[in-house]
Prior knowledge:
The chain is mainly α. It has a single domain (about 1-205), classed as ABC transporter involved in vitamin B12 uptake, BtuC (Orthogonal Bundle). Helices cover about 80% and strands about 0% of the residues. The protein has 13 helices and no strands. It has helices spanning about 1-5, 10-35, 40-60, 70-90, 100-115, 120-130, 135-155, 160-165, 170-175, 180-195, 205-215, 225-250, 250-285. Helix 2 (about 10-35) runs antiparallel to helix 12 and helix 4 packs antiparallel against helix 10. The radius of gyration is 20 Å and the shape is globular. This is Zinc transport system permease protein. Keywords: Membrane, Transmembrane, Transmembrane helix, Transport. It is a multi-pass membrane protein. Its main location: membrane.
Amino acid sequence: MLDAFLNYDLLRNTFYAGLLVGLIAPLLGTFIVVRRQSMIADGLSHVTLAGLAFGLLMQKKYTLLVFTPFHTGIAFSIIGALIIENLRDVYKAFQEIAIPIILSLGVGLSIVFIALADGINTDIFSYLFGSVAAVSGADLRLILYISWLVVTFVVFLYKPLFALSFDEEFAKVSGIQAKLIHFLFIVMTALVISASIRIVGVLLVSALMTLPVATSMRIAKSFKQTIIYSIIYGEIAVIIGLTTGYYFEIPPGGTIVITSALLLGFTLLFKRIQFIVGIKRDDRNAA
């Protein structure tokens, strides 16, 4: 793989993009999990799929179209994020209903656009499950820019985000502009999902935002540790997933998610063994 990495730009682009996605997906995913909004990634990913299908349709009908499916996917994801935020305001007592509404809309639009584009082809397949050779130089630059935006957003608004995630009412009383930060947060989430689809795929992107977080929560002793461990687990999953995907010639999305799930399983097993050993040690000390 090293020779291929040195000789092929697409492989290098995919690897660099994977490292960036392994950073920003768990970074924002930590806040999503704490906010109990894990399903929002699924909703936005299906809207992104509709955008990708629309882009492929337009590309097929208008070959000189400047925008790629990647760009239309980002646009649809941001629009979907804004619709979710608006629906949360409309249904204040039932805010979670916004996600299935947008998810259903995304699935419906995807089916229509894919059918109009004469079915699923290799392009849409790579968007669904990721690809080890799908990231162009332009895509990498766009993912790098998105990563910079997300990291800057979290660094500069860490305290308000932390407060809103754990105690929204207190945060509002403290003078934090909750509505603006919620708006920016969901837009950042849409951008992260859009950036991740090249590596993990639309159908599996939510796993990269939640599984590393679920793993780190079992061993972290603070919120900042949870973020750091989530990023570490995310990067490990991406590196192993891309490597195995290359050697076995399969979409990396599946191998990344399987690696994330195995890391979670090993961590849960380790904590269980640690718990049992601790009980036995306490019993011996009591005796």
